[in-house]
Amino acid sequence: MADAKEGGGLVFKPMDQFIVKPLFGDGPVGMFTITNVTFWMALSVLCIVALLVLGTRGRAQVPTRIQSIAELAYGFVYKMVEDVTGQDGVKYFPYIMTLFMFIVFSNFLGLLPLSFTTTSHIAVTAVMAMAVFLSITILGFVKHGFGFLSVFWISSAPLVLRPVLALIEVISYFVRPVSHSIRLAGNMMAGHAVIKVFATFAAVVWIAPVSIFAVTAIYALEVLVSFIQAYVFAILTCVYLRDALHPHH
Amino acid sequence: MATEATDAAGKAAESAGMPQLDFSTFPNQIFWLVVTLVVIYLVLSKVALPRIASVLAERQGTITNNIAAAEDLKAEAAEKEQQLQKAMADARAESARVAAEEKAKIQAKIDAAMAKADAEIAAKTAESEARIAEIREGAAIAVKEVAESTANEVVAALGVDVDASAVSAAIASRTKG
User: Fold this and answer.
1) pLDDT for the residue numbered B142
2) CA–CA distance, B173 with B177 (Å, rounded to integer)
3) Distance from the B33 Cα atom to the nearest Cα atom in chain A, whole angstroms
4) Which of A160, A237, B54, B102 is the most buried (most CB within 10 A)?
5) By residue range, what is the domain housing residue A12?
6) What is the number of structural domains in chain B?
7) Domain containing residue B16
8) Closest listed residue to residue A75, CA positions, set A56, A58, A88, A57
9) Percent of chain A with pLDDT over 90
10) Domain count of chain A?
11) ipTM of model
12) Residues B35-63 as b or e (16 or more Cβ within 10 Å = b)
């Protein structure tokens, strides 16, 4: 690689883990090429199926360990949707559950050594954020017609301030998908890159203990971040959904 | 030539250190992402979520039923307890009554026996008193006789001729006091 900085025999390639490459052969990456993206996404699907379908196969009254994890995940997301959007948001629960499970499993799978983190790519998170943004905007207009625009008109503010606030609200509304997607991708990418940098330092004898300790510590932090970012993505989706369902503040 | 140029652009993006900005891979990622999300959505909405919801609802139902059953049993237990308390109170009252009755009967018997014993004692006392009086009387007569005979003997020994009746009168007058 041309970007590899050769410093004292150390080769830093913290971003190589994010390269999308074909799984078989070495050809160009076309739209339908089976790549490492395909592989790790398929793995997340398998994990979700294993947890939520195979894990609950017994339909036990007294749940097994895996079933109680599945029920915990279900209850966690269900309660989040219900608390944030209210009863009429519950019918969108499967969509939010889909997003949450995909993100949380992609994040956790990305923590395996030598793995590929699909959610560290802006292409992936931007598609999800845009999907959320567009479907929620359309839903808002379908439900309330032009009344949906009252989401920008803050009736509790003094009348003079309302146009200014409306401008700010409109800008912040359109920035939502950007922050929504970059927050997730940025967190995933930064954490993994930092782990890789510290891991490279482990090749130097005198700094190796510090480096290994740092990798361990950052790894623990990343486990937390993986979950929290999935949670943040899901709860922000719920917040946006609430705006679409109840635009009147 | 054009493809070479885009490849070069892709390589340049990679060289800049951000595979995320290599737009040549975007269609691939987006395609597989959409496939993945659709598969997850179908699996969740058709199988997993209804199943978990039914399990949770069933469990909630079981818990509710069990709580209701427990309430029933508790009420029943309270009723039984009350019955027991009542039975205990009744038994206590009955036993108190029987005890009082028995006590009264025994008291009556004791009273009767005491009265009888008192009467017997009184009779015995009276008898004894009569006998003591008799003995006392007998003793007084005997004393008088002994005194008379002794006085007569003494008088005779002294050689004085005295009338026996005078002696007895004198003794009578002396022993009276």
Assistant:
1) 85
2) 7
3) 7
4) A237
5) 5-245
6) 1
7) 2-176
8) A56
9) 51
10) 1
11) 0.86
12) ebbebbbebbeeebbebbeebeeebeeee
